[in-house]
Design a protein that fits this description.
single chain; alpha/beta; 12 helices; 12% strand; flat; Rpn family recombination-promoting nuclease/putative transposase; Transposase_31
Length: 304
């Protein structure tokens, strides 16, 4: 597999739900409401060009009272409540900028709803909640700040209720499922994407969207789905870096500098390090859990 560019383009998910009609369909499915066609929808998704690295997948205000923040991920990150707090703070800052936030009059703000759509391959519950209070260093009876994120497993074969209610999301999940199946059969991601696009068009799955966007989808999906393999890619980069430095330093302690000569044991250990890193573990925690030196973990993660 060729190495993927790290530039971030609008994902298939964002493209699919970049129309107000599609957003309305999605929110009706999430909330159980039945807002009619033509209900006002304001898209307020953060863009990294404006906010640096702070960017979410989809955010909108509907019916003048709801902010919905949706992240679409292939791994469940326990730090999502903290990330969502950053997103919602930026959204409120934008909405209230230059308004009378210091006046005696109460300034009404939209009520937030926070979601993560999970479509990774590791087993996860159909639904779960992540709370920022779970990360607090000290537990107390009265919590001054809480952020609750609802995580929904939208893998096609899991049958989440939202998939039954939202045709666009269901077909997107089916499309990703077809790609993964063909990818596992052939081992060629790019070929799997091209074959899946043709197959889904024939089957009427996202037909108009796939026909309209054509080759752009191939290039983006290669990047998007390869991000699921980010651990392996970064692991290989870190391993090669450590291996080279290991030879240069002439050390004999094997894995600590990556001088494992590509053995299965070394690859598995590197994968565990990156898996823990993607789960939000600190280098110190990873070193303890993997029984490795902290310097080694930092070196492999390129955090030193």
């Amino acid at each position: 597999m060729k190495k993927v560019k790290r530039t971030y383009k609008d994902g298939i998910f964002r493209q699919l739900f970049n129309e107000k009609e599609k957003i309305l369909e999605l929110y009706n499915a999430l909330s159980g409401n039945n807002y009619p066609k033509g209900t006002p929808v304001e898209i307020i998704t953060l863009e990294d060009a404006i906010f640096g690295d702070l960017k979410n997948d989809l955010a909108f205000i509907i019916h003048n009272r709801l902010i919905v923040l949706i992240e679409h991920q292939s791994t469940v990150n326990p730090n999502m409540p903290l990330r969502m707090l950053g997103y919602i703070a930026k959204e409120y800052e934008r909405l209230t900028y230059s308004r009378a936030i210091y006046s005696k009059r109460l300034l009404p703000i939209p009520t937030p709803e926070l979601y993560v759509f999970y479509n990774g391959e590791e087993p996860q519950p159909l639904e779960q909640e992540l709370k920022i209070s779970d990360a607090f260093l000290e537990k107390c009876g009265k919590i001054a700040l809480e952020v609750v994120v609802k995580v929904i497993n939208v893998n096609y074969d899991k049958g989440a209720e939202v998939l039954k209610r939202c045709q666009t999301l269901r077909e997107y999940s089916q499309f990703v499922s077809v790609i993964r199946g063909k990818w596992k059969e052939s081992g060629d991601l790019e070929a799997a994407i091209k074959e899946s696009i043709e197959a889904c068009i024939d089957q009427g799955v996202l037909r108009e969207f796939l026909k309209k966007n054509g080759g752009d989808i191939v290039s983006f999906l290669y990047e998007e789905l390869s991000r699921e393999e980010c651990e392996a890619i970064r692991e290989e980069d870190g391993y090669e870096k450590g291996k080279t430095e290991g030879y240069q330093k002439g050390k004999t302690d094997g894995y600590e500098t990556g001088k494992i000569d590509g053995t299965k044991e070394g690859i598995q250990k590197a994968r565990r390090i990156f898996k823990l890193h993607m789960e939000g573990k600190s280098p110190q925690e990873i070193a303890r859990l993997c029984d490795e030196r902290l310097e080694t973990v930092k070196e492999i993660l390129d955090l030193s």
